[in-house]
C-alpha cells in the first residue's frame, strides 16, 4: 500500500489541471475550426481535456480510497463510496437534464430520441451501449465515468498484487494498437469476430475509460523510487506537456502517445514544483472548482446565445463574449447553488441514515 504526502498547493494543482481540461474542451467545441495550421493541436485538445478528466478521476480517487479498498470491498464501504460519487455528479446532471427536456424541441433533434433515451439519460447509462444519445451533449462522458465508479473499488483491490505497472503497460499497448492497427494489417481481411472486438475497443467506454484505469495504475507505480524522483522533476513536467502538444500532429499515433503521457502528466502536475506553481494559482483553481458545471453546460449556453440572437450571429465579439460571460455566470450559480448544496445535503443524509 502506498501513501503520498504533499502540500496543499500540490493538491490544488490537480484542481487547476481539471480547470485546464474543461477550458480545452470548451475551446475545441467553439474554436477548433478557426485555428488554421494549429487546427490539429486544438482539435486534439478536445480529446485531451476529456482524457485528463478520466486520468485525474482514477488517480485522485485512488489517493482517497486506497486504504479503504486495498484489503477488501465490504458492502457498506462499497455503498458508501457509490452514494458519495452519485452525490457528486448526479444533482447537476439531473438539474441540467430537466432544463434540456423542458426546452427539448429547440435544442435536440426529435427523431434521435424517445422514452428509452430519457430513461438512459436519467439513469446515466446512455453511454453503456452503441446508442449513445445524450440530451446534454457532454454527459456521455459522465455516463462512462459512472460505470467506472461502479468498478473502481475492485480496481483498487486488484492492484494490491503490485501489478500496476504491468497493467499500465499492457493496457497502453492494447490501446495504442486499437488506434493504429490499420497501419500494420489489412482490415478488409479481418474476420467478423475481430471486427466486432475492434468495434468494442473503439467504444467510448474503452477509448476514454482506459485513462481512468491508467490513472489508478499511475498512482501506485509512480510511488516507486525511480518514478517518484523522475516525475517530481520540473523538466519531466515540461517534457510531458511538450510530448502531448507535439503528438497532436502525428495522426492516429497521438492516441498511442497520450495513453502513456497524460496519466504521467497528472502525477507530475501533482508532485512537481512547477506543476504546483502553474496550476495552483487562485484563478485557475477556482476554474477547476467550476469545471464540472463549465463542462456540462457550455454548449447549452452557446445555444442560448444563438437562440436570443435568432440564429443570426451579429459579430464574433457578441457571440463569444456573451457566451463566455454567460458560461461563467451560469457555472458559478450551478456550482454554489446546485452542485455543492445538493452534494452536501445528500452526503449528510446518507451519513445520518447509516449511523
Please outline what is shown here.
The chain is an all-alpha fold and 355 residues long.
Task: Walk me through what this model shows.
The structure is a single chain. This protein has 16 helices and no strands. With 355 residues, the protein is mainly alpha-helical. It has one domain. The longest helix has 38 residues, at 316-353. The mean pLDDT is 84.
Strand content: under 5%
* Major sheet characteristics: none
Q: Average pLDDT across residues?
A: 84
The total tally of domains equals 1
Query: How far apart, in Å, are the first and last alpha carbons?
Result: 29 Å
Number of strands: 0
Specify the structural class: mainly alpha
Number of helices: 16
The amount of helix comes to over 70%
Give the topology.
Elements: H1 8-31, H2 39-69, H3 75-102, H4 104-107, H5 115-122, H6 139-158, H7 164-184, H8 192-201, H9 204-207, H10 209-221, H11 225-231, H12 234-247, H13 253-271, H14 273-279, H15 282-308, H16 316-353
Kindly list the characteristics that best describe this protein.
355 residues; mainly alpha; 16 helices; 0% strand; globular
Amino acid at each position: 500500500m502506498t501513501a503520498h504526502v504533499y502540500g496543499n498547493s500540490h493538491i490544488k494543482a490537480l484542481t487547476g489541471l481539471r480547470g485546464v481540461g474543461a477550458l480545452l474542451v470548451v475551446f475545441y467545441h467553439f474554436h477548433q475550426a478557426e485555428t488554421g495550421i494549429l487546427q490539429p493541436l486544438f482539435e486534439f485538445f478536445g480529446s485531451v481535456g476529456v482524457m485528463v478528466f478520466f486520468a485525474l478521476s482514477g488517480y485522485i480517487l485512488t489517493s482517497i480510497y486506497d486504504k479503504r479498498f486495498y484489503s477488501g470491498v465490504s458492502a457498506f464501504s462499497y455503498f458508501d463510496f457509490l452514494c458519495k460519487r452519485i452525490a457528486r455528479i448526479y444533482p447537476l446532471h439531473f438539474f441540467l437534464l430537466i432544463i434540456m427536456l423542458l426546452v427539448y424541441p429547440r435544442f435536440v433533434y426529435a427523431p434521435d430520441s424517445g422514452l428509452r433515451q430519457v430513461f438512459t439519460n436519467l439513469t446515466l447509462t446512455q453511454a453503456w451501449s452503441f446508442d449513445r444519445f445524450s440530451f446534454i451533449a457532454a454527459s456521455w462522458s459522465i455516463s462512462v465515468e459512472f460505470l467506472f465508479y461502479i468498478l473502481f473499488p475492485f480496481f483498487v483491490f486488484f492492484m494490491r498484487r503490485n501489478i500496476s505497472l504491468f497493467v499500465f503497460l499492457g493496457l497502453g499497448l492494447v490501446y495504442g494498437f486499437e488506434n493504429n492497427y490499420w497501419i500494420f494489417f489489412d482490415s478488409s481481411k479481418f474476420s467478423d469476430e475481430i471486427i466486432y472486438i475492434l468495434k468494442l475497443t473503439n467504444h467510448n467506454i474503452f477509448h476514454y475509460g482506459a485513462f481512468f484505469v491508467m490513472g489508478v495504475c499511475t498512482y501506485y507505480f509512480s510511488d516507486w523510487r525511480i518514478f517518484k524522483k523522475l516525475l517530481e522533476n520540473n523538466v519531466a513536467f515540461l517534457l510531458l506537456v511538450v510530448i502531448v502538444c507535439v503528438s497532436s500532429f502525428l495522426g492516429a499515433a497521438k492516441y498511442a502517445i497520450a495513453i502513456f503521457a497524460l496519466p504521467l502528466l497528472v502525477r507530475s502536475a501533482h508532485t512537481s514544483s512547477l506543476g504546483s506553481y502553474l496550476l495552483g494559482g487562485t484563478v485557475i483553481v477556482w476554474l477547476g472548482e467550476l469545471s464540472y458545471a463549465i463542462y456540462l453546460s457550455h454548449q447549452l449556453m452557446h445555444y442560448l446565445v444563438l437562440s436570443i440572437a435568432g440564429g443570426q450571429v451579429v459579430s464574433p465579439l457578441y457571440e463569444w463574449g456573451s457566451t463566455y460571460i454567460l458560461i461563467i455566470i451560469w457555472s458559478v450559480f450551478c456550482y454554489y447553488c446546485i452542485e455543492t448544496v445538493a452534494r452536501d445535503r445528500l452526503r449528510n443524509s446518507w451519513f445520518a441514515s447509516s449511523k
